[in-house]
Design brief:
This protein is an all-alpha fold and about 180 residues long. It is built from seven helices and no strands. It has a single domain (about 10-184), classed as CDP-alcohol phosphotransferase transmembrane (TM) domain (Four Helix Bundle (Hemerythrin (Met), subunit A)), CATH 1.20.120.1760.
Length: about 180
Amino acid sequence: MMRERILTASNAFSVARVILLLPLAYCLTNEFPYNRWWAAGIIAAAILTDFLDGYLARKLHQVSEFGKVIDPLADKIAVGVLAVMLVWVGDVPLWFLIVIIVRDALIVSGGLFIRKKKKIIVQSNWPGKIAVTAVAVYLLLSALNLGLLESFRQVTLWASVVLMVLSLAVYSRRLFIGRLIEEQ
């Protein structure tokens, strides 16, 4: 059996997304000139790493079982921790954080169930990727905290909630259909 490479460029970008939370926390919790712009720049860099890791994995033929786990896990950690920080500083409502946590907990639980039963790792789906992007845009706008963008920020809030529910429905359908096929 051939050992899978874990140290790849694509996996490094996934890990970088989590590491970026440290300077982001500093920017959001300390007052200094342009701290919110610095925070927004770090969030934009994290969003870029999310696109780069998948692109590089395919382009450099580095798609791996480890990458299938670390990429969505890094997304969930980065989005969850950022949402906690923005709730903490008063820029995001607590109920939104709860929606994120409940959705992600259900998806992770379903993924673990499928892995245990079928010995496969379920990859992210497009509705999930779009939902994470919408959530990231909402969190980016919230970090900027610009009154000028408030209407757009509210649109992204509700769009991200709808997309999170839609992606959860797609994941649930995949789990339910998988269980039906297994029972036949």
